[in-house]
């Protein structure tokens, strides 16, 4: 019944991104805080204990860490430090705290909200050199790593031992586990393995005054007082630098299936999700949805780079879903998947589909989904909204935004002089998380004014969240009131101030 998936390749587009952004401080109304300026004495102090190649002041080295993955936010740091031990991190932070020098912790710099790069001249502290796997218990599945270990490295290491990392995302080749924890990244399989708030068992972190918080437990259960590690999960470098993480890893599944399905309405997507949960139960590991415009954007980005790939389905259905199952018994899993597919087709929910027949095809289907992030930034820039919304109204937001842009003459399918190239929706439907991307030919105030506060007001009206998984960063620090009340924001600020009384940790972001 199902065609075979075609082999496609959509990765490898990032290298040619060339949009140059202005300094964040020139683009947005933000004032430098009352921090000290870096001087020769500071550099001399850092040189006294850091290896010379771990202290960088060259423009070329700094250019890379001053600008974010989207090339939207650009800072002006003059110093990059790359400590190799927890004690080096501690000495750096203690000095910065005493001298009131502002800092930005940086992992893989794949964050999407401008949180990982400086706004002014903050010192960038990279975790890249803290990159050892510390220990693994292959009975319990608990892994302890340095914060700078790349997600994919950890996952591949675990796979050789019959386990996987409980988080997976498109940036896995560059992002670091410390960065994942600091952003509380959600990713492609949260539906199955849960959030990092559940899978992270322990955290080691250096506090702004240089003290080391040793919460690197590997216990699943520990009810001795407050669970302090939770404060660091999703803290976005605002209260300390995570240096070590222990995490509970699930066993690798022997049997993985991926299906790509075409649907004609968003109502059918919701019904199919309900059906999938009931029919696939414990083996359902991902339920992702992309709209036609998203697929067109990936397709066009490939063509722009003289690459071509056959779409997974013959027709461009308005909604397409990727369903993954992961289990231990291939016969049982296939039976379940086939029963679900037959049922969804008999009920006229799914109108077309393919099931991957081997690992290469599984990867090829995933690349259509994961390729959306890179492809949407190919047209000059992208406004990204990462929202939690009740499922029934999720795509209403995409449509409302597109209509507003068309009505105001800022988007047109036929006129390539308009600032907006496309408005697309995709995301982790299984987690109630939509990604709304407005792909633009140029960033303009006009487009921004149509998008904001409209998008945030829509989210607030439906009791959603302005950040489902990418975090607050610089981008959403002014939009928190749409998701949290004044009392909650005051408490967050009090916690931040308690950890970081001089406000040196990642200023201008996370909480005002
Ligand atoms: P960075 O970008 O370097 O930093 C992110 C934030 O964490 C910054 O505020 C930084 O100061 C802080 N930070 C970093 N390391 C530390 C540390 N050790 N201690 C304290 N603070 C630290 N996110 C999702 O949730 N789900 C997805 O599916 C997803 N997919 C993505 C796909 C692509 C192609 C890209 C580019 C990004 C994606 N992201 C996704 C966004 C991003 O949040 C994640 O890639 C990742 O969690 C960021 O990790 P990083 O090491 O790159 O952190
Ligand atoms: C995704 O789900 O693809 C990520 O969160 C990244 C993005 O939205 O671009
Ligand atoms: Zn996502």
Quick structural summary:
The chain is built from 17 helices and 17 strands. It has helices at 24-27, 40-47, 59-66, 86-99, 151-159, 177-183, 190-193, 196-199, 229-232, 266-280, 292-304, 330-346, 359-376, 394-407, 445-451, 454-461, 486-499, and strands spanning 3-4, 55-56, 80-81, 103-106, 123-126, 133-137, 142-146, 200-206, 212-215, 241-248, 255-263, 284-291, 319-327, 350-355, 381-388, 420-428, 433-440.
What this model shows, in words?
There is one protein chain. The radius of gyration is 23 Å and the shape is globular. By secondary structure, the protein is of the alpha+beta class. The chain has helices at 24-27, 40-47, 59-66, 86-99, 151-159, 177-183, 190-193, 196-199, 229-232, 266-280, 292-304, 330-346, 359-376, 394-407, 445-451, 454-461, 486-499, and strands at residues 3-4, 55-56, 80-81, 103-106, 123-126, 133-137, 142-146, 200-206, 212-215, 241-248, 255-263, 284-291, 319-327, 350-355, 381-388, 420-428, 433-440. Helix 10 packs antiparallel against helix 12 and helix 11 crosses helix 13. The longest helix is centred in the C-terminal third of the chain and has 18 residues, at 359-376. The structure holds flavin-adenine dinucleotide (FAD), D-malate and zinc ion. The site of zinc ion has 4 residues, from strand 16. Zinc ion binds next to strand 16.
Keywords:
binds D-malate, binds flavin-adenine dinucleotide, 8-stranded mixed beta sheet, alpha+beta, binds zinc ion, about 500 residues
């Amino acid at each position: 019944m199902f065609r075979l998936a075609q082999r496609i390749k959509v990765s490898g587009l990032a290298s040619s991104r060339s949009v140059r952004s202005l300094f964040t401080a020139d683009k947005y109304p933000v004032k430098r805080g009352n921090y000290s300026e870096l001087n020769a004495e500071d550099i001399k102090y850092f040189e006294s204990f850091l290896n010379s190649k771990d202290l960088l002041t060259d423009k070329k080295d700094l250019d890379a860490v001053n600008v974010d993955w989207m090339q939207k936010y650009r800072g002006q740091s003059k110093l990059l430090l790359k400590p190799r031990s927890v004690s080096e991190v501690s000495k750096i932070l203690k000095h910065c705290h005493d001298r009131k020098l502002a800092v930005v912790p940086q992992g893989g710099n794949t964050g999407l909200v401008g949180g990982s790069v400086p706004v002014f001249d903050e010192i960038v502290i990279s975790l890249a050199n803290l990159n050892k796997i510390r220990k693994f218990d292959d009975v319990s599945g608990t892994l302890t790593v340095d914060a700078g270990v790349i997600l994919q490295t950890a996952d591949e290491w675990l796979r050789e031992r019959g386990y996987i990392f409980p988080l997976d995302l498109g940036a896995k080749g560059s992002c670091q586990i410390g960065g994942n924890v600091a952003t509380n990244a959600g990713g492609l399989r949260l539906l199955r393995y849960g959030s990092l708030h559940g899978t992270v068992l322990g955290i080691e972190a250096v506090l702004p005054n240089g003290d080391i918080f040793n919460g690197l437990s590997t216990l699943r259960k520990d009810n001795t007082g407050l669970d302090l590690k939770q404060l660091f999960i999703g803290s976005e470098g605002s209260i300390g630098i995570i240096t070590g993480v222990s995490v509970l890893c699930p066993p690798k599944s022997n049997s993985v299936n991926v299906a790509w399905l075409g649907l004609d309405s968003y109502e059918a997507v919701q019904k199919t999700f309900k059906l999938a949960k009931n029919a696939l139960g414990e083996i359902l590991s991902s339920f992702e949805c992309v709209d036609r415009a998203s697929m067109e954007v990936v397709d066009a980005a490939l063509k722009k780079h003289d690459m071509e790939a056959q779409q997974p389905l013959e027709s461009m259905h308005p909604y397409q879903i990727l369903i993954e199952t992961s289990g231990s018994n291939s016969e049982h899993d296939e039976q379940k998947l086939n029963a679900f597919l037959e049922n969804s087709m008999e009920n006229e929910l799914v109108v077309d589909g393919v099931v991957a027949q081997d690992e290469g095809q599984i990867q090829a289907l995933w690349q259509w989904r994961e390729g959306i992030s890179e492809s949407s930034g190919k047209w000059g820039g992208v406004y990204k909204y990462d929202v939690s919304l009740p499922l029934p109204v999720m795509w209403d937001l995409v449509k409302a935004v597109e209509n507003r842009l068309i009505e105001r003459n800022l988007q047109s399918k036929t006129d390539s002089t308009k600032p907006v190239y496309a408005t697309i929706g995709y995301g982790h439907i299984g987690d109630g998380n939509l990604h709304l991307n407005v792909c633009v030919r140029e960033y303009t105030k006009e487009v921004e004014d149509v998008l904001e506060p409209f998008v945030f007001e829509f989210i607030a009206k439906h009791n959603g969240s302005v950040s489902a998984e990418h975090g607050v960063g610089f981008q959403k620090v002014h939009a928190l009131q749409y998701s949290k009340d004044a009392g909650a924001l005051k408490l967050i600020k009090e916690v931040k101030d308690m950890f970081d009384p001089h406000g040196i940790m990642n200023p201008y972001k996370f909480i005002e």
